[in-house]
Task: structure prediction
Amino acid sequence: MAAQNLQEILAESGDIVGLLRNSQVGPYNYPAVTAEYHNWINEQTAWRDAVVLMDQTHHMDSVFVRGKDAFRLFSETAFTSVKFPVNVAKQYIPATPAGHVIGDGIMHREAEDELIYVGRSAAADWLLFHAETGGYDVDVTVDRRSPMNPLGQQVTRTFWRFQIQGPRAWDVIEKINGGPVEKLKFFHEDWLTVAGVKARTLRHGMAGAAGLELWGPYDSYIPVREAILEAGAEFGIVPVGARAYPPAALESGWVSAPLPAIYTGDELRAYREWLSPQSYEAVLSLAGSFVSDNIEDYYLSPWDLGYGSFIKFDHDFIGREALERAAGQTHRRKVTLEWNAEDVTRILGSVVDVDGPRYKYLDLPLANYGFAGYDTVLDADGNQVGVSLNNVGYTANARRVLSMGSIDADVPEGAELTLIWGEPDGGTGKTNVEPHEQTPVRVVVSPAPFSSVARAEYQAGWRTGYSKLDPAR
Result:
């Protein structure tokens, strides 16, 4: 009999790491959105130099929670504070009872008793499980991300979701509005009418410049998109495709997909039994040169991901006791790892070097080949001092290959380290991993966010410890 849930899958396997490292799910896709509208290099540079339309409609889950316990549900399942008013959004980051990160996303407070979660499935599943089993008086509706491989089937969502970003973004927004639009505080919400559609707005800044995220009913997707592009034509607006979009996280300093820390622990058994065999957690693929027999070596703390300042002990939440114990300890820290240009050239050149080794293909602009990626990072003496985390790619704005990383606290900014690129033993059995050899890559420890624009514009606590502090956050 086939396994009925994640717990049964793990029990049958007996090797959690091997199961995930050899997952047959294939590559993580950004579904439904065209790969390139212009070319991915111009699409990337446009969010720094002009203005872009980013399409976030299809790659995230949306969870709609209404009822008298909606606020309490979010509060008790995340270490981030939910003491924020209506028409404001905050980051939602849940942890396990042991204090390890499960995932993250954005929670929008639409009314006193109505919140919306938007983000990847790991945090969405945690929220849904507790809504269903925790005795909360809530009504929940979930709109799952579009299928990675729809195989010709029609794809629909509850809402479309766009971002207008870049230094000319506000020119476009005010043209759509027919007049001035107040630049609200970061992560504050309002309304904007586009093509006759009343759309919700969120003051955002993925590219480090003032911009808006907008969402509205999916049946108005085409007229709204066309209206935005028409309004932006005189300002050089460029639609961003699915190839150019993901590396924006490298510039903004966000680790998009840490491994959900839910595969062990008796206190999480009920959760694993709730997760289906088709869940994100059951099928995800683990990639990279870091290999341990213990899945818990892949778990990450909030501090490892730059979320230490987000922990608020002003409320009771799952994992609070563990995080209180860990608060005074020394932790790894989030950084950007800048790849050596000569080593990048050597890896790219191996595809046409018929007499030399074949290295793991460095697919630009996004080189991730697993849902969660962990590459070993070594110091000059060959000691492991951290890991490179997912998000490996190229930004045309810096003309650099970058990785997000988590490294030991005593490794200084500017230090040169070595990242091991590729998997051992010729590669794992993932369907999207070709036979290859490992190779060392020199990397320089750099700030996160890497983008100086993002460091100057993002407020403290939003993916960075730099810059401006907005008391509302």
Observations:
- The first helix runs from residue 6 to 13.
- The CA atoms of residues 368 and 445 lie 20 Å apart.
- Residues 458-473 have pLDDT under 50 and may be disordered.
